[in-house]
Design goal:
The structure is a single chain. By secondary structure, the chain is α/β, with parallel strands linked by helices. Helices cover 48% and strands 15% of the residues. Helix 1 runs antiparallel to helix 3, helix 3 packs across helix 4 and helix 7 packs across helix 8.
């Protein structure tokens, strides 16, 4: 009975969340069309609303640990669900994501993502995608912000191992920027798919910076080691058995 009640509460939460997205998208649209700042403010308002309603509707509290970066940096994060997007974007001044091209056509999300400077990438053509990603990002550097890439290229469920994609290393090398790794445990409470949201404390943690200048291979090994180790620690804190690596 308790599980059924939590699922029902989760359903109400999910429905109101997407309704709020639609309402905010319409209300802020005139401002978003004339200014990226308007789009960012709308997205941040949505992030705050989701965190607030998740806490009282389904008992899912959220926390951002570490120091959210303020300058022009590369953020390379683990990705477990939509919630880590909300926590990361809501905690930094001007985030913009490397995103899959299909999201451009998603209602509200796609239009606002483009307005805040997100970079759409065709993941089906790897070499072309990486080259265009670097080109697009380099062209947009005149507008400072925090570029966010999900180093494994997709959402990865807790406990599942998936290799880190070379795209993060290419951006780190080509842009010559400091990289801020980010770890998370949000997938323990908010899964990749499905309605159920579990109560608890979902965390995104910004880890110590990786200075520019490392060889690509060294950077990728360090990034994967630090993000996976920190994410495993957060998931164990949340009661998830990560096993031994």
């Amino acid at each position: 009975m308790t599980h059924a009640l939590q699922w029902l509460r989760s359903l109400v939460f999910v429905v109101q969340m997407y309704l709020a997205m639609a309402v905010l998208g319409i209300v802020f649209l005139p401002w978003a069309l004339v200014s990226p700042r308007g789009a960012r403010i709308a997205c941040k308002a949505f992030c705050r609303w989701v965190r607030f309603t998740a806490a009282w509707m389904v008992g899912l509290r959220t926390e951002v640990r570490g120091t959210p970066p303020r300058g022009e940096v590369l953020i390379a994060s683990k990705h477990q669900s939509f919630l880590d997007i909300i926590l990361i974007f809501g905690s930094i001044p001007a985030g913009k994501f490397i995103m899959k091209r299909e999201l451009m056509w998603a209602p509200v999300i796609g239009q606002y993502a483009l307005r805040i400077g997100c970079v759409p990438v065709d993941r089906g053509k790897r070499s072309q995608a990486i080259g265009k990603m670097v080109e697009d990002v380099a062209r947009g550097r005149q507008e400072p912000g925090q570029l966010i890439i999900y180093a494994q290229g997709t959402r990865v469920a807790p406990g599942v191992k998936k290799p880190y994609k070379i795209g993060a290393g290419v951006l780190y090398e080509e842009l010559g920027q400091t990289c801020v790794p980010a770890a998370t445990n949000v997938g323990v409470f908010w899964p990749r798919k499905g309605i159920l949201r579990k109560p608890g404390l979902a965390v995104v943690e910004f880890l110590p910076e990786i200075a520019p200048g490392l060889p690509r291979g060294t950077f990728m090994r360090r990034l994967e080691s630090e993000v996976e180790e920190a994410s495993d620690k957060l998931m164990r804190e949340a009661g998830f058995d990560t096993g031994e690596r």
